[in-house]
Amino acid sequence: MVIDGAAICDHIHAMLSQPRPTEYATSAHDRVYRGLRSRIMHGEIAPGQALTLRGIGAEYEVSMTPARESVRRLVAEGALTLSSSGRVATPELSNDRIEELAALRALIEVELASRALPRAHMALIDRLQSINNAVADAVAQRDAVRYIRTNLEFHRTLYLRAQAPAMLAMAETVWLQLGPTMRALYGRMRKNEPPQYHRLILAALKAGDEPGLRLAVRGDVTQGLRHLAV
What we know:
By secondary structure, this protein is mainly alpha-helical. It has helices spanning about 5-15, 20-40, 55-60, 65-75, 95-115, 120-140, 145-160, 165-190, 195-205, 210-230, and strands at about 50, 80, 90. It has two domains: about 5-90, Arc Repressor Mutant, subunit A (Orthogonal Bundle); about 95-230, Up-down Bundle (Four Helix Bundle (Hemerythrin (Met), subunit A)), CATH 1.20.120.530. α2 (about 20-40) crosses α4 (about 65-75), α6 (about 120-140) packs antiparallel against α9 (about 195-205) and α8 packs across α10. The protein is globular and about 55 Å long.
């Protein structure tokens, strides 16, 4: 009997390269979680909109288990609410909650910007200017979701230079909780020009002006939210 060593090696390699069931589950859960998280953060889902595990599973072509785990994780992060009856929905924030989250943004993001300033080289400033041009284009096109996405990209790109990952993660959790509300805010304000504070942020970065940068970031992250809480 002749044993084909090459064939055996190929067979073993194929077996080892096959994802295990747990890997499938982890991959599916991560894909659903990241997809839902992005949609919520960027305002693609309205405040108070109900979601079902069946609907999530169908949309992402997964079983109920990864859908359920993703929802559980997002509920823990405050991106979704779970009622006593089991209804899952995006949050409808009270005025007090909006004020609280606006205050958190002011505290965290001002500090992130301040820490980023010493590392704000011209290449970063040019990148921020390019992103701000995309923000302006989204405003001109009245594309609310793209506006929110590019606006957050502007802030994230700056804050990454702070090299403070724990602080940035906290900021992103606040963005996540505010996502649906930001969409409602955009519709109410009827914006027709990019955020004025972005220009002030860019000017402060170019000048190395930390007090000016702190004031500009504080104004940018709080002005719109306060319009909702009136």
